[in-house]
Batch of 2 targets.
Target 1
Amino acid sequence: MAILTPAYTPGARNVRRRARGRFFGLRLSLAIVITLVMVFPLYWMIMTAVSPRADLYQSGLHLWPSHWTWDNFTLPIKQFPVWQWFRNSAVITIAVTVITVIANLLAGYAFAKLRFRGRNALFLLLLSTMMIPVQAIMVPQFRLSIDLGLFGNLWAVILPESATVFGIFLARQFFLAVPDELIEAARSDGAGQLRIFVSIVLPLCKPLIAVLTLLTMLSEWNSFAWPLVVLFGNDQLFTLPIGMVTDLQGQYTSNYGALMAMNLLMIAPMVILFVAFQRFFVQGLARSGLK
Amino acid sequence: MPRGTSYKPRRRGAYTHGQAAAASLFLLPNLALVGLFLLVPLVLAFVISTQKLGSLGSPQYIGIDNFITLFRDTIFWETVWNTAVFTIFTVPVGMVIGLGVALLLNSVLPGRTLYRSIIFLPLVISGVATGVLGSWMFDQYNGFFNKFLHAIGITGPAWQSDGKWAMISLILVTLWQRVGFDMLIYLAGLQGISPDLLEAAKIDGSSAWQRLRHVTVPLLGPSTFFLLIMNIIYSFQVFDTVWALTRGGPDFSTTTVVTYAYREAFDDHGPQQLGYGAAVGVFIYLITLAITVIQWRFSRTRDEAG
């Protein structure tokens, strides 16, 4: 699905010339205006992050910093364990991604290629858990984390957040397209199911793995509700979003320069990933629910 | 099920048995995680919702008292109303804008790939970052919007202290964040529409508006339905943007139902009203379930019709 990269077919030239005629100038200006409106808040964030604090309280609208400064970055980093939060976010994101992707790939394969009793019922059961909101189960999850001894370390986030079925559906669809003959052939050579899966099927599914990995990383890096509940009270365990909301917003109530600087730090990894792997993000999000 | 069904009957016995054993191993990690961290808590949520429970002390069974309190709780109904307002203004408006932008950027324009990427970008930015950014843009003293309005001679509204305006700022921030998703799904849908069809309608003498109304929009039906469900669920479950932008305030004027569940169970009183919070959670689950069931029914009807 090439959504962001338009495909040109042989006839496209003519179509293009004809299409250009109608309201071309209007359409182009509209597209540019919409794009500018969308990008402006991001510009404002960057601008504020590098502006000296006095700039914020000036009267009148200033679209450019009076001079460039890094103070907004150094101040919160000095006052709060921001790098520790960054590290926690990274550790949690990587751990959840590894666990989720492996678990979802295995389950997706079972639903696509293995035959067993109750397959459809089980599939429906898992499907029904897809939309359970954190807030519906956060109280029992909170108690459970304490009972399981997870409370007070990062596993309290990692394990519950790895319990997701979203990737199973994407994986199942992808595996259904893998020819049965290939698997049959490997079977008659005496390969076991796991070996077939790892050495025959998975190498064919690199785009699937890329999409699952990126989408899981995205949702975990940005995850908020459950970490807020379970990491509460121990700022050495905070992730970036929790630190932002619990500590930084409390401390810098009107020092938006510091907040915008830390916001930039928080969004940078995902923006970089998006720019680098845009195609996979777009494919994944477009396909995530469409049949 | 297209391909998977063509297994060889002669091998049935041993083969299926071996596959079932393999399947249970393949499913084990996911089932263990989902069972322990989703299904068990879901059952427990119903149990705890019948209890008076704080973080200390033992639970006390109180039957449906939490739900009676809930239905008499005027703040709860205010949060239901807020959720409805938020959903009604974010979902259809976002979808209409998304469709418009998709139509615009599906037509041939120089640089359209770049425009699409930029409109899509807020989607990878977290709700927390979006909310924090929004709280600055909408700051009633020094924020961009009020400075801009001041520059053109208008006194800007009190985005923080006036509940109505706080809700409007939340809706605008959410639209900024979500419109890229609507655009993306509609773009994918538009690419599935054959240009010949539109060309034929054109030759038949239909206007651009008629083609949009009678050809394009009906053919985008599946995309619209998908977006409607996804967006309703998203709007219904919004939390991170709200928390970072307004904390649900002023008072409860931007507190949605899920935000209320968090405030009641963990925030406003410390982890004290766990039983009551669980009751709000059960309510949220039942609504989500209802939306999901509607989705299933409709997509089944659609599949059977098609």
Note: Chain A touches chain B through 106 residues (CB under 8 Å).
Target 2
Amino acid sequence: MNARETILNSCPLGEPTDPWPAPYFVLPPGSVVEAFKTSLNLLGARTIDENELAGYIGPKTWVEPNAGLEVNALNGFQNQVDLWDAEVGIASTVLAIAQTGSVCVKSGQGNSRLATLAPPINILIVHRNKIVPSLLEALELLPDGNVAFITGASRTADIEGVLVPGIHGPKEVLVCLVGGEH
Amino acid sequence: MRSASASKVTARERALKTLFCEPPQAQDTASAIKSYVLDHLRTLLIELEAQCLSNGIQVHWANNAEDANQIIVDLCKESAKPGDVIVKAKSMATEEIHLNHHLDEAGFETVETDLGEFVVQIDHDTPSHIVTPIIHKTRKEIAASFSREELGPYTEEPKELTMQARAHLRKKFREAKIGISGVNFAIASTGHLVLVENEGNNRFCTTAPDVHIALMGIEKVLPTPAELPLFLPLLAASATGQLLTTYVHFIKSPRQERETDGPKAIHLVILDNGRTNVLQGPFREILKCIRCGACLNVCPIYRQASGHAYGHVYSGPLGEVLAPALEGVESFGDLAKASTLCGACQEVCPVKIPIPELLLEIRHRANSPSTSEKLAWTSFAQASQHPLVWKFGLKLLPLAPMARHPFLTSWLKRRTLPTRVGRDFRGWWNERS
């Protein structure tokens, strides 16, 4: 018998059971956009306006092709820097979660995983109408493919419990809110 | 270390109250889901395997640590040559099978990339906590290690030390041929490998190299993504008091045509290593564990003794059950005595594992005391009943640290004898009167 069969034969098949009760989340009060901003604040992630984006554009900025298509300030921008050496990375997102201040990024169609990881400053473009209240809705809408939820800057507290941002990924995460709420 | 544990305990409570209307109900539900998983393990693993295969993830099965190490070393040899860099994300399963040792033997440069694990690795130390591995080290000790390894100018500032590690490890990520990680949750219905972390090293390990190898215990499977809104925040809150970890990765497939980065091949190694035995025995509930470390932070014994005292990869209340459950009560049954049975561990456990009950069961099953232990107690009983022998023994006491009996030296490896202060009571009394 190979390892697969040995292991599986030692595991129970099980009978169908009743579904379990859903956990009740504390939902953020008020509009999801305001709640999302509050959560970002608690994480130390700033929100910026679309017109502030221009200030971050430079030779060491890396802009995801998709992000440029959606936002006026980035239209026509040409990347001149290797992603590994970029100082600012601007990326688009597919979802955001008000309860936790998280954004969901999806790899593929020009969207790179390193764009939200390698540059020390990371700007995430979030559409106001893509913000959902909690993880419940986010997992229901989970896009197909390789995706990730990002909640604030990369961080560690391994040395004497002192919180230090930017151990491996971005030291600073900025969220640029675009579009109308509905 | 004690204050570090205490602040995590408060942060945990605050996060749970922010997230859930009724935190105990969330814990009960999570426990029920994990019961379902253990009861349906075969069905779920078969489904997971089928989904992974159809998504392009290759699946391997390992009966024990030896097989798992062999599978992983062989996979590494296929895509890297001796001297090549392999980057590792933090994973208790890889600690459990002592993978690094095998990769080093095969000639690879294995680099732990979690900051804590990195420090443990350069110091040839072992982790003392399953979530925060260097909770036992001071900034001064870390500063000394970094300057010894020439990572940068000497500094004791956590921020600067962190940046030195960032620069060093960034080079390793860029060089690495293979990335190795654990798995926090594997979703049977979709084949997603779900990994959580705060540092971003996991994201590098599973993005930058061409090959990603993930190792998971059979119990890590969950039925559907619908269970994650409960488990993800429960794990984050219980581990560090966060609402959600900085990163949650949903890894579904190797790099697709329209992706610009990500591994070209993903291997999932499914590990038994004693778990199917535990599943059929009295300690099966411990397989619900999601490795959050909340029971360590709250345990009065762990807070005093720290992780190294347990002598096993898994420490704290969880280790007191898991170590003997996986490796036999004969070898690790003693660990179950390192508990006051106060029940704090069960109270904070996100999946409500009845740890005190399991500890009692282990104590009940553990072997009777060893011959040397019996001898020690018999001698003590005899001595305490015979004043002359007792007095003679007391006179010998100052000589105790000089004893070099092999039994004593092995016993003293992890213990420090208290220094004798002052003198014996009788002598003092006689002189006084």
Note: The first strand of chain B starts at residue 57 and ends at 62.
